[in-house]
Structure prediction request, 543 residues.
Amino acid sequence: MMNKLIFGRYIPGDSLIHRLDPRVKLIASFYFIAIIFLANNWQSYLLAAVFTFCCILLSKIDFGFFARGVRPLLWLILFTVALQILFTTGGTVYWSWWIFNITEYGLQNGVFIFCRFVLIIFMSTLLTLTTQPLELSDAIEYILRPLKAVRFPVHEISLMLSIALRFVPTLMDETEKIMNAQRARGVDFGEGGLLQKMKAIVPLLIPLFVSSFNRAEDLATAMEARGYQGGEGRTKYRVLHWHQRDSLVVVVYACFTIALVFLRG
Amino acid sequence: MKPIIELQEITVRYNEEELAALNKVSFSINQGEWVALIGHNGSGKSTLAKTINGLILPQEGSVTVGDMPLDEANIWQIRKMVGMVFQNPDNQFVGSTVEDDVAFGLENQGIPREEMLIRVKDALEQVRMSEFSTREPARLSGGQKQRVAIAGVVALRPDIIILDEATSMLDPEGREEVISTIKKIKEQNNLTVLSITHDIDEAANANRVLVMREGELVREGTPAEIFSAGPELIGLGLDLPFPEKLKAALAQRGIDVPKEYLTEEGMVDWLWTSVLNK
Prediction:
């Protein structure tokens, strides 16, 4: 079950993309999602696609991983594309029945939406595949730092985030263990109707919840024993460094944006 | 010798109506000593450990650590002196990787980064976990995680290490590993160790053994003194060390065994000499 989930996985490597500063990667990914909406004709989409594939090539990660990233969202994409194709009017009408019709613009829009989806998923998969969760939480903390001015608890949020990330595999293991223990006692997971399936979740959820409380208590005690008094007066062990390659990303993105604006119709 | 930890008439009650978890417990530990605290489940051992660094504040009595009375004012100063390693290796791992976890305590103390890098490296070397420094906890064994927890404590350079059943969730191999690591670090840094344990062999290594029952300190002495009580220990809900078990089994078969406590080596010596003398 857990192995199919490609989203949020990290693939260790030593490519240029891997070594980029996580802040750059995080902001660049969001920026890409924003500017992909600038594209509105096939030239601009082609440019965006080429750009994305270059990034993927640079990461030296097997393309299969990206394809697998798209798979869970495939139905959502196809559904949206189908809606676009069937309900957009304008241009030459190829086929029409009741309120549905397939038109030139509809097909074009469908293809564009499909590209947009796939490119966005590729880019965000690229971010998570090449960045350790830890680096991501560091990056988020750094980016949120200005919010301290409005009394936003940046330290607390980032600590929570890093503890949450650290406990994900631990809790996954535990879930697996509880599931197997309950199976041994005759609980059928994923069998029967919806109601039965939901009922079967209870003997998994409650022990998991209770044990999380115990873990939280133990962890809090251990943290206090090690002198944790909150964010005040703490120093940081990990620091992010800005390299030349990170500046390069900014330049590349600027060129990409200009080209995109130039190409859009 | 000057006591580094002193407890006087400590009483802790979790719930007003309930039996006290600790009832007028007094003892002191000297600088450089290795003291083992044993007792059955619910005898108040863990509560006692937590009162020493103020994780639990006693209702009555006073705790003094290194000349400082434990109170609100110097609680953090005392926590700097006392390092604790807890039972569950997973639940005390704060950092996302080994080195982050070791650095956590240092970050809390506001130690500059250059100093941190040195201390983390040094601490990981002491517990022989250097090559794992960038690993995530999910990819470590229980014993390795406990060694990282010890490194986290060592990096803080405390005067006292409290092991709160630190080996109870480990297999014999991991247990051996952790105990030998602690032993080495204790010798190198002249630390005081208070180890709370169910493991009778671990207790046999200590300079002094304290036995608890129902929140009270019932016995105190060297391992030899405590373990020569033999079957009485079982009455306290404790196990016997292996040489004692062997002695009991021999006595049952009508063999005259020495009364006093013998370590495994002592037992071997006695066995071969007695066979030769026949």
